[in-house]
Design brief:
CATH topology: UDP-N-acetylmuramoyl-L-alanine:D-glutamate ligase
Number of helices: 13
Number of domains: 1
Structural class: alpha/beta
Helix content: 25-40%
Radius of gyration: 19 Å
Number of strands: 14
């Protein structure tokens, strides 16, 4: 793949209770800018890739501030337009110990959710692109953004641009409108070359259960996905075992049509912020894939970034190749 990497999705402002407080426990909130697709773009920009964001924001200080933050992370935002509506928000209370983190969405009626296919010139925005990355969050926001996501995927296929799609199933968003997630997600996966999703995502779109356990079940699901979607070349996923809110065990997996690779589990302790860890995984996998890596290299790169992201406040990975190398080297003392 050559050419600019294009990311289509909503920019969000995240407001987080300080430390491990509950929301509204004290009159303060920390602000971060993110969004599933923007997080992947920022992660890849920090790894040296040419990334561009396509989105829609309100013409106010919140929208302009969100664009400035993403642009400041090295992502081209020329494809981010302004339109009626409001800025999408979400609120986070970070869990600890036996108390899970909790998210409250406040994004209905956002400028991005109100925008439809006619608001984007996808043929121009994708001209010469090396990749289009989408997620299942965009179509979950409502009928207009669902139509826009489908239009983006169709334009990419028409132009011969490879598509990367992260299932990112959000039941609360789909349930908020008269949606048909199985049909919409099936069309998006059918347009994709790369799928970020596990056996649960494939079970949803295929309407079938997978009977195996562990790695066998994941391979059974991957083979069913490859059979149902002939254009798919790669399926990437993680396996996460939650011990406490700040102690998880994580493994990474890559399934290709001809083979697969799954890493061993890594104990991730002292978790600072797990939001965006899946997006960091996607950035790591895509980084290795774009660099010509095999299944093992993609799994290792994705695992490194997702584990490192748990140490960093905010939504996006901001790590370099040197950080990935240091993670695999195992050195945890101060680097001087």
């Amino acid at each position: 793949m050559t050419g600019r990497l294009v990311f289509f999705g909503e920019l969000l402002i995240r407001l987080t209770a300080p430390g491990n407080e509950l929301l509204m426990q004290s009159p303060a909130l920390d602000l971060h800018v993110g969004g599933a697709e923007a997080n992947v773009a920022i992660g890849l920009a920090h790894l040296g890739h040419d990334c561009a964001m396509v989105s829609r924001i309100p013409a106010n200080a919140l929208g302009r501030g969100a664009v400035a933050a993403v642009r400041g992370a090295g992502v081209d935002c020329a494809g981010v337009g302004a339109g009626p509506g409001r800025m999408g928000l979400y609120f986070l209370s970070v869990g600890a110990g036996l108390r899970a983190s909790e998210i409250v969405y406040d994004r209905a009626g956002s400028s991005f959710a109100a925008a439809g296919p006619a608001d984007y010139d996808f043929d121009r925005l994708l001209a010469g692109a090396g990749l289009l990355h989408l997620s299942g969050i965009t179509p979950a926001l409502g009928p207009r953004s669902a139509e826009a996501a489908l239009a983006a995927a169709r334009a990419a296929r028409r132009l011969g641009v490879p598509v990367s799609f992260d299932g990112n199933y959000r039941a609360m968003l789909w349930d908020a409108w008269d949606s048909d997630p199985r049909t919409i997600l099936s069309e998006l996966i059918a347009a994709a070359d790369i799928l970020f999703g596990n056996h649960r995502d494939l079970s949803l779109v295929l309407g079938s259960e997978f009977s195996g356990e562990g790695e066998d079940r994941r391979r059974e699901a991957a083979e069913a996905g490859f059979a149902a979607f002939p254009g798919l070349k790669l399926i990437a996923s993680t396996a996460r075992h939650v011990v406490t809110a700040d102690h998880h065990r994580i493994a990474a997996r890559i399934d290709l049509r001809e083979n697969c690779h799954q890493t061993g589990e890594i104990d991730v302790t002292g978790i600072v912020d797990r939001i965006g860890a899946g997006d960091a995984f996607a950035a790591g996998v895509l980084h290795a894939h774009l660099s010509g890596g095999d299944a093992r290299a993609m799994a290792d790169s994705g695992l490194a970034l997702t584990c490192l992201k748990h140490s960093l406040p905010g939504d996006a990975s901001r790590f370099s190749q040197a950080d990935i190398d240091a993670f695999h080297g195992g050195g945890l003392d101060v680097r001087r």
